[in-house]
Amino acid sequence: MPILPAEPDFYPPDLWELQNDVDGNCHWWCLHAKPRQEKAVARELHIQRVNFYLPQAIQTGRTPKGRPTRSVVPLFPGYVFLYGNEDHRLLALKGNRLVRVIEVPDQNSLDHDLRQIQKVLSSGLSVEPEPANPVGARVKVMTGPLAGVEGVVLRRGKRDRFTAIVHFLKQGATVDLEDWQVEAIDPGPSGILSA
What we know:
Elements: E1 10-11, E2 27-33, H1 38-47, E3 52-53, E4 56-62, E5 68-74, E6 79-84, H2 86-93, E7 98-103, H3 107-121, E8 138-141, E9 150-155, E10 160-166, E11 171-177, E12 182-184
Antiparallel strand pairs: 1-3, 2-6, 2-7, 3-6, 4-5, 8-9, 8-12, 9-10, 10-11
């Protein structure tokens, strides 16, 4: 199968030269896309000439037979950033690829963060996505047979290790979960969760 060329991460090409809109009509929106629809959302916005940013990184791996693979994947799975007005937001919703549009209360902070991410990505250095729930994060399982169980992310690897602890016994049980299956929660006084 031929390797397709990478699609643009942002539109227009001078997006990072644009300053914040002084009259307040344009601002950043965070588009929460349906699973595996980020590139399709970006493609539709590009065709409609709507300003957007989809940070992407190169992910390497191996096939089951050991051949190396290389993919361009969203740095923040599920999210595309739109810079526009209310009409642009409504245009993005028409594609039926979004779960919701998230308003951004601190425009300057997001603009700064996105510019930093773009600078990192354009540096030519190897960039890897950082998981939402790092090692030690207290999380609650949101889906599947373990929904509602609280625990700690134990380690990262091909699959994340999640531990539910029984304080009384000072022991626990560990299971493999994906990052999307858990949600961060605030730590309790002891910093460890119980099952």
